[in-house]
């Protein structure tokens, strides 16, 4: 009987989980597809749900910034996601089903934001078209994507509870990482991360600059971002920091893009 034919490869015979192999590849340089890109995630709960009073000035600010900066706008889901999750959990839906449903809502917000940004070249981009971004940006368009990662029914178990751990904050971060972006900015309705909920505790302090490790050690009861993002940031090759800014204050997004001190910076 003839021997099995093996393609000649440096990974021939590997299980692809061997520690020594992983370490050997740890320092390999990766291609930065769009190194001057600014990924700006617009929260559904923090911005879009407020309607025209907040959204229209935000749209104008982003549109004007897009004239001088390469940008990818990523949308969150907001209150409708929370409503759907509440019903789904009550009915015993598995986490993967909840993730599949949540993605449809952030897609709706992406459609609306793309139309509102059409004056500045706003263009709806779907998940499978992410690698079309270099071409779209070269054409002077402003891409808009929904933020829910496409795990869908294959969403990771959350560890505790049923709520999908990979939502739109982590989706925006994963897009920034794979594209090798310059900035990943999360636009919220708060000035950044606080040591406690400032609505409850008047002594709560703004955390302006913090490492992932420090933030994990704090083990805060609540965060203005998805906790899963912290663990992803630890393993990132390109994106070494994430910024949280208040989108209700005009000029904050530009400050974050330019590297000025604003909101909270979480770094490795």
TrEMBL record:
<keyword id="KW-0418">Kinase</keyword>
<dbReference type="Pfam" id="PF00696">
    <property type="entry name" value="AA_kinase"/>
</dbReference>
<protein>
    <submittedName>
        <fullName>Uridylate kinase</fullName>
    </submittedName>
</protein>
<keyword id="KW-0808">Transferase</keyword>
<dbReference type="InterPro" id="IPR036393">
    <property type="entry name" value="AceGlu_kinase-like_sf"/>
</dbReference>
<dbReference type="InterPro" id="IPR001048">
    <property type="entry name" value="Asp/Glu/Uridylate_kinase"/>
</dbReference>
<feature type="domain" description="Aspartate/glutamate/uridylate kinase">
    <location>
        <begin position="37"/>
        <end position="228"/>
    </location>
</feature>
<dbReference type="InterPro" id="IPR030669">
    <property type="entry name" value="MoSto_subunit_alpha/beta"/>
</dbReference>
<dbReference type="GO" id="GO:0016301">
    <property type="term" value="F:kinase activity"/>
</dbReference>
């Amino acid at each position: 009987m003839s021997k099995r034919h093996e393609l000649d490869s440096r990974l021939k015979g590997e299980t692809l989980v061997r520690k020594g192999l992983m370490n050997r590849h740890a320092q390999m340089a990766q291609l930065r597809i769009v190194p001057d890109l600014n990924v700006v995630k617009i929260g559904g709960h923090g911005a879009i749900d407020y309607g025209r009073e907040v959204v229209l000035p935000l749209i104008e600010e982003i549109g004007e910034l897009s004239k001088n900066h390469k940008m990818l706008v990523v949308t969150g889901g907001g209150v409708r996601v929370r409503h759907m999750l509440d019903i789904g959990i009550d009915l015993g839906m598995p986490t993967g089903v909840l993730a599949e449903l949540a993605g449809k809502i952030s897609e709706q917000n992406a459609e609306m934001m793309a139309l509102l940004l059409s004056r500045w070249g706003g263009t709806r981009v779907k998940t499978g078209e992410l690698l079309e971004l270099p071409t779209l940006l070269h054409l002077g368009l402003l891409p808009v994507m929904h933020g829910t990662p496409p795990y869908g029914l294959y969403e990771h178990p959350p560890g505790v509870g049923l709520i999908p751990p990979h939502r739109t904050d982590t989706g925006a971060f994963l897009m920034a990482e794979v594209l090798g972006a310059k900035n990943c900015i999360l636009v919220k309705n708060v000035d950044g991360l606080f040591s406690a909920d400032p609505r409850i505790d008047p002594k709560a302090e703004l955390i302006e600059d913090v490492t992932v490790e420090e933030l994990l050690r704090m083990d805060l009861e609540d965060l203005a971002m998805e906790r899963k993002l912290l663990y992803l940031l630890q393993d990132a090759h390109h994106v070494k920091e994430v910024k949280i800014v208040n989108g209700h204050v005009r000029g904050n997004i530009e400050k974050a893009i330019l590297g000025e001190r604003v909101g909270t910076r979480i770094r490795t």
